[in-house]
Specification:
265 residues; alpha+beta; two-stranded antiparallel ribbon; 10% strand
Length: 265
């Protein structure tokens, strides 16, 4: 909302600046004494903390690492390579995550199992967490659900750059995941005993048919729930748009047809 500006010339008191200097010194002194003798509010919601109340400090600085700000439920965290039931990574070294990465922070070297020349695995899988922009494209591009960002952790601080370069030994962690149509479960594997193979097949779950399936989402963050809420709000928003159009004496603007994409030969 616009507000009027007072463009009058400064009077003698304002031109001397002494009253404003005294007001600034008083404000700094007040905040200094309040922060010196009182502690800040412990409410983790910074916006909900009281401001200007006597007995509390307006300082919002966290005394890290003694105090830590809790992460929101939708925070996904850093990467991890998802293991199979036998401890090997689900990754088949297809390079799709390294190809789609906009920061080019993923490096992969592929290898083949000696007793299974069909299946590949990552001999090296390295992520430079200093270059990573935490966009999640690698998770979306992976066809095997082999990399996830559901750790709920951020990259730990370090004094050396080499500590931020994570290899497959640091990334391979977390609960194992098996799907019914995993190739090593359908055709078997020489290193997996028959009894263990049957147990893995029995515990495998169906592969998600949609990218928004709950099995492929981080706990506490459901794309399906967000889509359902948007679907419920759609009729109300449509009615509001129609009412606004009638109020202004017109109807909703017709949508222009979307041209078809060009054919590539």
């Amino acid at each position: 909302m616009p507000y009027p500006l007072d463009n009058r010339p400064a009077d003698l008191r304002e031109a001397m600046y002494f009253p404003e200097i005294l007001r600034g010194i008083a404000t700094v002194t007040r905040h200094f004494l309040r922060n010196l003798f009182f502690s800040r509010s412990k409410d983790p919601d910074i916006l909900a903390r009281p401001r200007g109340r006597f007995g509390t400090s307006d300082n919002v600085t966290l005394q890290y690492p003694d105090e830590k700000q809790p992460y929101p439920p939708a925070y996904r965290g850093m990467h991890r390579l998802v293991p199979r039931e036998d401890g090997r990574p689900r990754c088949v070294a297809c390079y799709m995550c390294a190809t789609i990465c906009p920061a080019q922070c993923i490096y992969i070297e592929a290898g083949e199992y000696p007793d299974d020349p069909i299946e590949k695995y990552p001999v090296k899988f390295v992520i430079d967490e200093l270059r990573c922009i935490v966009c999640g494209f690698c998770v979306e591009a992976c066809p095997k659900d082999a990399i996830r960002m559901d750790t709920g952790q951020h990259a730990p601080p370090s004094y050396e750059r080499a500590a931020q370069i994570w290899d497959e030994r640091q990334l391979l962690r977390g609960p194992p995941v098996s799907y019914q149509y995993d190739p090593w479960l359908r055709r078997g594997h020489p290193r997996i005993p028959a009894e263990e193979l049957e147990r893995m097949r029995a515990s495998a779950r169906p592969f998600p048919t949609l990218a928004t399936d709950e099995a492929s989402q981080t706990p506490g963050f459901s794309v399906k729930a967000l889509a359902a809420e948007a679907k419920e709000r759609a009729p109300e928003e449509q009615r509001a748009l129609l009412a606004d159009a009638r109020l202004h004496g017109g109807g909703p603007a017709p949508r222009e047809p979307i041209p078809p994409p060009p054919r590539v030969r």
